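Lab notes, practical 5.
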Amino acid sequence: MYSSRAPPVDGIYHDESESTASLIDVDGPHVQTVESDFLKQDVQTTTQAERIEREAEEKEKREEEEKKKKKAKAHKVKSSSIRGNTSNPVFLANAAIATVIGAGLSFGAYKQHTKGNLSWELVGLTAGAVGVFGTVDYFVSKWFLQNKFPPK
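Output from the prediction step:
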């Protein structure tokens, strides 16, 4: 057999005495006294204190749920206002412009890449031009939305 194994345990020894937690304390007073203003206290028992604490937690949960519902409702109103403006010419024009410019830039970048002329300088200049155009488009669209085609 193996000589490096530990020898088997002969048995389990119970040297510890029984727990004294369940025994009755005979040395303590048999009658408990309460303060004279006990009935005037708001919380008289631990059960009442636990109930009040539990009710406060439930109230917090309800308030958080109401906040979430209001937030979801506001988000729903915002998304429905976007759907309501799908026939607005400003939104349609911006969608068409973004599509045409995206396709044109992608095709132009592909052509430059196949010719071997695509460089970081060209990409940077194009990105700058797109940024300038986006800024101008933002302010023009904002003017149109405020003056000519207000959203619903």
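Observations recorded by the TA: The CA atoms of residues 47 and 53 lie 10 Å apart. The chain has two domains: 45-84, 86-152.
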